[in-house]
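Sequence decides. Our protein:
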Amino acid sequence: MTRVAGIPTSRMANFIRFQRDPLGFLVDALPMGDVVSLRTSSFRPTYVVNSPDFVQEILVHQEQHFRKGRSSDVLRRTIGDGLLTSEHAVHRQQKRYLMPVFYKERIQAYAQIVQEETERLADSLKDGVPVAMHELMMQLTLGIIARSLFQTELDEDKAELADAVDVTIRHTASTIFSPIIVPFAIPTPGNVKHKKAIRTLEAMIYEAISKARRNPEEYSDSMLGLLLDTKDESGQALSDQEIRDQMMTMLLAGHETTANALVWAWCCLERSPDTVHRLHGELDRIRASEEDSGKPLPAYERYREMDYTKQVVQETLRLFPPAWAILRESERELIMLGDRFPANSSFLISPYAIHRNDGVFGDASAFRPERFDGGTSQWARFAYFPFGGGSRGCIGSQFALLEGGLIMGTLAGRFEFASLPGQGEEKPEPLVSLRVKNGRWMVPRSR
């Protein structure tokens, strides 16, 4: 028996609904079946994938038969041929030489940078003075990624660079799901603004590459130093363009997603006083233990003590996964779990929707970090997958979890945050990653 169900609405109705409310469309499709056909062209059919075992077929068991396709074509305008956009053999080669960037010993060193940058931010906050939380988190994570991976201090450039990232993200998102992709060479207002933003980011990147080539010993412990030492399969060093593409990839994928997740976390905590109470209890116990011993824990050791803080981060990523949609296109006809799919089929996988399955999580729309007391193995492998999976799963997932946990633990240990009145309920904005629409002004209160 087939596990593919046809959506009852027309192709045009589906298109209009998805354009207006992609998240609502995908959540509504969740109970329709394991795989839902959108009744598009028979030559290029499109499916929404809801079942974890089908997700595993696409991302793991038969991943060699899929490409990222359209999404990579659009992202390539900004990040070039980096890890996020490369395919098959090139992707495997790039992942091999980038893996050491995220080895455990490097993650431990990055933890101290996260701690220092977050403490610096906390010192700048004033009790009762509202802050634009999205901009604050964007600048914080941008500074962390630049310092930990590129060994570059941004300081006064943070706001300008964060704004450039925002422009590229918005324009990329509007293009990925547009029915018509305007060539990047055409000087539309959007393309002109996008290219200017890319130049702003490239200026920082190429300056860092130039400094590293002049003084390689100063960058030996950074991602940039690793890239300078990397040789391709023919034994040639990577060109500045190749290094630029990987740095741009990490810059965009490595900080905007974490910043968005953190803004969602502060919003969720505000609505959950019991969670806040338990979170503060854990952080206060860690601080008291440090005071008793007479010395602070190293940042990585402190993170290891933050069990409940980690659960808050995991639950935030369940409800508001930055990578809200994963796109794949089949390169050949496939049989998956007994069903046949034509070549050039498109598959839309939404962690945002799949994470809201009441049958798996029970009261799935509620924010309850204690769900993760038993770890993630209590669910099917792809019932919870905020970082994707398979060979294309997020290479920096452990760094992202550590960064999110340490930022939250550091700031929540010193402040509570409440939304400035008059903003209404926060709403998700599905761009390349999932944002709080219009950002969120919040008021820090010292604890």
